[in-house]
Amino acid sequence: MQLSTSEISELIKSKLENFSTSSEARTQGTVISVTDGIVRIHGLSNVMSGEMIEFPGNTFGLALNLERDSVGAVVLGDYEHITEGDTVKCTGRILEVPVGPELIGRVVNALGQPIDGKGPVNAKMTDKIEKVAPGVIARKSVSQPVQTGLKSVDSMVPVGRGQRELIIGDRQTGKTAVAVDAIINQKGQNMTCVYVAIGQKASTVANVVRKLEENGAMAYTIVVAATASDSAALQFLAPYAGCTMGEYFRDRGEDALIVYDDLTKQAIAYRQISLLLRRPPGREAYPGDVFYIHSRLLERAARVNEEYVENFTKGAVKGKTGSLTALPVIETAAGDVSAFVPTNVISITDGQIFLETDLFNAGIRPAINAGISVSRVGGAAQTKVIKKLGGGVRLALAQYRELAAFAQFASDLDEATRKQLDRGRMFTELMKQAQYAPLSVSNMAISLLAANKGYLDDVPTNMVLVFESALHGFMNSKYKKLMDGIESSKDLAGENEKAVEAAIQDFKATNAY
Amino acid sequence: MAEISTIARPYAVAIFNLGKEKKTLAKWSEMLSFATAVSQDVAMKAYIADPKVASGDLEASFLKICGDKLSEQGQNLIKTLVEYGRLSILPAISHAFEELKAQDEGMLEAQIIAAAKPSAAEVKDLVKRLEAKFGNKIEATVSVDPEIIGGIKIVVGDTVIDASVKGQLQNLAYTLAA
Fold first, then answer.
1. Residue-wise pLDDT tens digits, A94-111
2. Which is nearest to A439 in space by CA: A466, A472, A462, A470?
3. A125-152 residues labelled b (16+ CB within 10 A) or e (exposed)
4. Each residue of A358-386: pLDDT tens digit?
5. B168 touches chain A (CB under 8 A)
6. Which of A26, A51, A60 to mutate: most B Cβ within 10 Å?
């Protein structure tokens, strides 16, 4: 017989102490039918929409459909032991999950129960999973950057704290890689991360957690996992649960980053629930409110102002803004962004990072399509130095794409065109980056400066990345002070720029490519 | 069950309104319970469900069995039900009608389940308290169930007031398992 974690005598003692023996008046009903996790209940005349209901055997459900003679509910967890005629009780509560710093470093399921075998989560607080997003009065515009550590993202599609930036692409294009790199780069950035895995293989989730652990990212990350084998109800609820855990930090004047990987699977889980509840299907068989499930979730990612934080904490935290940045992931089928769910989420978010199979297969990784990836608010939040140096990248790549199409037909090109093509090729190469190797602001600035000032023009295209890493190594050892200056000020003032240029010349003088 | 009560409701409401207008609620109650009893007979059930029986035959034989127990309007109800093929939901109609009638009379049915038989005075006191709580007249039926170990359990419609030892032990078990 195995000992369960809940059988520690201290815990039992506290439970016995807090146990009340008063009689209770509760509304009750009976189960009429159980079908694939959906239960129809007769009675429960006072039940609320979204209320938790209690089945026998310590199982809970969520009332979703309130009809005239019956209530449609989803069971959270196993439903095999529920049979027709079972008694169901109202609880009068909305579903809640544990929140707080105790969750950091843990892997929990959609109900906040630990699944990493590290014992109970001793969270002191719980909070409702469905909450209304802060209103316009409580908000502040996005003005601080989230450094993802990816050259292509930070220079072309910058993300600000409180922004919702969609990561969209086909399967196997590196969507999760971009999100995980962004989490890894938050070390020491005062950012708590929440990674919500929805409908993924348990092995994939385990891999992500292992990678986060290896890179020391679990020290500031919460993982909420609703794997493919969990019930559709849990897959549907996981993003809301994760969001509530992230909001805890937002509301207390801290910054948090949440990754929903991925919302397509959540929509599919919701479609399953809705169809089993016999709600009328609409486009692609999704129910009518599939837009709302994503809009209400992503609206909760926001930057809130000082007054909101002060009011929320009752004056304990003053003069600090809080933010919850969301990186939702959407998987498209064969690049079709005009499918129902992708268009919905594109329209909700403040921009998208578009990943393409062709680019990925051509070795351009991260496979970001610079032409259609945008960030609608991130520009205002971009780090000064990256903004100054990265402005040319987008333009160079756009011109390169335009010319490259023409250049296929022309046999001999004039000098200016050839130069532009070479430059575009160089920038494309420079935007490549290995996984789990995010760059600091100073390193990124050096790379961009070298490219902008033409120091890479005489480097063969296939040597660009080798040159870059050698340059970083050289700068970080020989010009450490200068680099630290850029890192702390996040800016490159006049004389510093000259010093950096001189340093690059120094590097080029001692190395040949 | 849910679907059946949804179908039965308009019939029950119509009967109730008609009965109230003509002040024949008691008569209707009697007729419905009689017709229900007839329709629930094993042979009759099979006969109703038999697709080979023509609706005219079913109507005639059903009315013949009921004889003079049904008023003209009662007979019309049977005819309507046969026409729509809804004779099998008669019990649900009867149940819904009784509910409406009880509601109209301001009566609530309460089931009092006790571990040991309570005295008449205790029941009277309990009913008085329940009437105050629900703001309605309470018609209590008392039953004894040693399974609940101690205390009482009161069921009024959907509301259950559980003050039994069994319920509390169950709660304790859940609290410890959670």
1. 999 999 999 999 999 999
2. A472
3. eebebbeebbeeebbbebebbbbbbbbb
4. 999 999 999 999 989 999 998 899 999 99
5. yes
6. A26
